[in-house]
Every structure is written in C-alpha cells, then in structure tokens.
Design a protein that fits this description.
470 residues; mainly beta; 3 helices; 4% helix
Length: 470
C-alpha cells in the first residue's frame, strides 16, 4: 500500500527487501524485523542451530582456519513430535580455493574409479568451469584445475551445466551452444558437438544433468534424456513464461530428437529428472514467479513442482506443486529402497531473525511413492544461514544449486552454492561452494501430514521460523 510522500520506487524497494525473507509482502508484518526486547534491551543470543553454517566459516578474505570436514548437524522434522538432529559433516570447500567466486556446483560419482568429481564455475580472470577430484569418497580433494583451456592457455568452458557420467570413463556437459565430452574419467575435455536450436529457432537453456538409460544386461547406454527450457517474453512482465522441453539421444549425445514442448511444463524451467523404482520418470521443476511477485525483478521467488511420466518421457502429468515460492534448484536421488530424496534451496520463506536479517537454507524431502507425493512434514534442513546484508542486498547471502550423489556406504554427499561469506563492505556479489555428507534417517516417523495437505500457496506451507526449532 502506497503512503503519502512515498514514491513507487521506494515502495517497491521496501517490498522487495521485506519479502526477500518471507516478511511483509505476504502478511507477516514487521514484527519479525524488530531487534531486541520490547523494552529496548538486548535479547540473549541463542546458540546456533546444528545445521547453521554462519558459525562454521571464516570471513571472506580472512586467513582460512576452518579447513576440511567439520562436525555438522542435519535437522529432521518429525511432524508434531520433537525435531531430531542427525550427525553430519560439513566441508566449506570453496573457502579453501584461491578464487574469489565459486558457484553452480555439479557432483558425479564414478564407481569404476571410486572417484568423485566436483565441478563449479569460478572466477579469475573470468568465471569458467573448474573441477576437483576425490578418490577417497570426499575425504580429501585435489587442487582445482580448469576443465578446458584454449590454444593460448585461457579457460574457455564457462560452466559444467548438465555434467553427467555415462559410464566407461565418459562424461558429457551441455552448455547453451556446445556439448563437451571427456573419455578419461574427467581428466581432459574436448569440444564435442553443437547444441541444436529449438524447433522455433530459439535458444534452449540447460541446467540439470541428463538421465542415462542403460541396457540392464550389458550396461551400454541406450538413451540420453535431457531437459532444457525456452524463455518467452520479457522477464518480470505478465506476458513472460518459460517453457520446459525434453528431447532424446539414442546415440552418444551428438544427435538429438526434435524437442517436445511439454504442455504441462509451461511456466517451468531448470528441470531435473530421475528414474523411480517402478520405472516412472520423475521431473522436479523450478516454476516461474507467481503474479504477486511481479515488479520485484527478482527470480528468487520461483517455486517448485514435480511431474511424472509413465511412458518413458513422451507425455507428462500436470505439475504437482511442492512450494509456491522461494524454493527451487532441485536435485533428486533414487535410493536403493525406492525412496526418492529431493534437495533444493530455500531463498525465500524463512522468517527473518530478531535483527531483521534474512535467512536461507538447503532442505530435502522424501517421496515414498515414486514421486507422486512428498513428505513435507518430515523434511530435512541440511544447512541454514543468515545474511549479513541489508538495504537491498539481503539476497547476497542466498544459496544456489544443489547436486547430490549416493556413496557406496549409503550416505549422501550434497553440494550447494552459498553466499554466506558475503559482507557489507563488498561491492560484488560472490558465491562459494559447500558440501554436506549426511544420511537420511530410517527411523519411523509419526503420521502427521498437515503441511503436505496445506494449500499450495498458504503461509503454513511456504513460511517457516527457524527460531521455532528447539
């Protein structure tokens, strides 16, 4: 609501800042932004949550002392019962790199070599793809190396989008215009093939790994499935929408079928796939900003939905909404018992702390019915952090991307980007990469389904106060 003497731009800036952390715009009001007690005295600081990462980092540009793996906790919800803290480990690996900025992490596990590859886009002199390797299940990592350089030694691969392991030492990356390939377990990369434009002549944008179908007897790759998306109109206008699409390669990723503009994916982008235990294909989609966020010019209000195909990816169910806003960048792993674990970032929806600082997180939910429903009442918080920024830069502390692999011991290794080390003195928004090693809990939970049954756009489903965790 515009007040006398307040310009439209000032109103918009206020709404943008307040709503970045789930306050103000959707009816929370300003109570959560008030610091201290009602009488003006300071409140006693509570100990950080087990999943907190602010307490486990060094400030940007400070000598790094938090080296290697640290003790960490993953908070698991149990419906109406007491929340549980699960043992986990945190590795703030991006803080150890010499680069100022590292983002968009992608993880793959190569079983033949018992090798992990973590790829990220890092700066100096420009933001380009870099990789580190671990041959001891993530305990130690090599120093980062550029994934490809040109004839004069300058890095020329921008990002490791779609990083996918095909088997027998072969990996593939899909950028906006080129595919890149490695045949030596990720040690070296070559420019592989051009990326075909969409059928309308439009660019199709990549993000998530491909789905690899293999012959169950020979292990040979018989099909690759990739998702991309197209943009239509100008972002942050009522006419804008993204269009998710899918296409297939029955060869080695050099030639592709004509893409299918999936009707049910109108308004969806950055779509990750997995194969459910019953054979269905499950897609987790970032959804476009809903209409109440128009005018903020901020894509961090995107939501999260899933979709299922029962005919090998040719037709898809309508979107099953998970969160209306503030959660996206999903990744999925199908566990040996058939559970599907989906990780995602929380960029909006956590209520601000008592000092008015926005909060962010990495969460996970589980489906026990092949992706048909998701157990929001028993979700996991893998990591949480407060932004140290205000005055229009709150979202500099936000996370970006999740990528997980299943390790041989049954644990999960989840990589994510985070802006937790950004400080007010900075003039550029910089990211870092972190890892959490954790294990979904197998203990029984209560039958609570309040959140799962709550309306998709409701505050009950989309807002959460970290201070409510005991």
């Amino acid at each position: 609501m515009q007040t006398k003497g307040t310009t439209e731009m000032e109103r918009r800036n206020f709404l943008k800042c307040a709503s970045l952390c789930g306050a103000g715009l959707l009816g929370l009001g300003t109570a959560a932004l008030t610091a201290g007690n009602a009488d003006g005295t300071n409140q006693k600081a509570s100990p950080p949550l087990a999943c907190d990462i602010n307490s486990k980092i060094d400030p940007r540009d400070a000598p790094w002392t938090h080296l290697g793996w640290q003790k960490h906790g993953v908070v698991r919800f149990n419906g109406s019962e007491a929340r549980q803290t699960l043992h986990a480990e945190l590795y703030f690996i991006g803080g150890e790199w010499e680069y100022n900025n590292s983002q968009m992490p992608y993880l793959v596990y190569i079983p033949e070599r018992k090798r992990l590859i973590l790829a990220a886009s890092v700066d100096k002199p420009a933001t380009k793809a870099t990789a580190v390797f671990s041959d001891d299940f993530g305990k130690t990592w090599t120093k980062p190396t550029r994934m490809h350089t040109n004839t004069v030694g300058n890095p020329d691969l921008g990002a490791a989008t779609q990083l996918t392991y095909l088997g027998n030492g072969k990996l593939i990356i899909g950028s906006e215009s080129r595919y890149w390939s490695s045949t030596d377990f990720g040690q070296t990369w070559t420019d592989y093939a051009p990326v075909p434009l969409g059928s309308e002549g439009k660019m199709m944008y990549p993000w998530d790994p491909m789905l690899v179908d293999k012959d169950p007897e020979t292990g040979k790759v018989i099909r690759l499935v990739e998702t991309r998306y197209k943009e239509n109109g100008r972002f942050d206008t009522p006419e804008y929408f993204s269009q998710g699409c899918v296409r297939f390669s029955t060869g080695d990723g050099k030639t592709w079928s004509k893409e299918i503009n999936v009707p049910q994916w109108k308004g969806a982008n950055e779509i990750v796939l997995c194969r459910a235990k019953n054979g269905d294909m499950v897609a987790a989609c970032r959804t476009d900003n809903s209409i109440q966020f128009l005018g903020l010019d901020n894509d961090q209000f995107s939501g999260l939905a899933t979709s299922v195909s029962k005919d090998n990816g040719y037709t898809w169910s309508g979107p099953n909404p998970v969160y209306a806003w503030g959660r996206h960048h999903p990744h999925m792993i199908t566990m040996p018992d058939g559970d599907i674990v989906m990780t995602y970032v929380v960029r909006n929806g956590y209520i601000a702390d008592k000092n008015g600082l926005c909060r962010f997180g990495i969460e996970a939910v589980v489906s026990k019915d092949n992706g048909a429903t998701w157990d929001l009442d028993h979700k996991y918080i893998l990591a949480s952090n407060n932004s140290t920024m205000k005055n229009g830069r709150e979202n500099w502390g936000s996370p970006q991307s999740t990528s997980s692999v299943l390790l041989p011991d049954g644990s999960l290794l989840t990589a994510f980007g985070t802006g937790v080390r950004n400080v007010p003195a900075q003039t550029l928004w910089k990211m870092d990469v972190a890892l959490v090693k954790w294990r979904p809990d197998s203990k029984p939970v209560d039958s609570q389904d309040t959140l799962r049954r709550a309306p998709y756009s409701s505050d009950l489903r989309n807002k959460f106060d970290l201070d409510s965790i005991p």
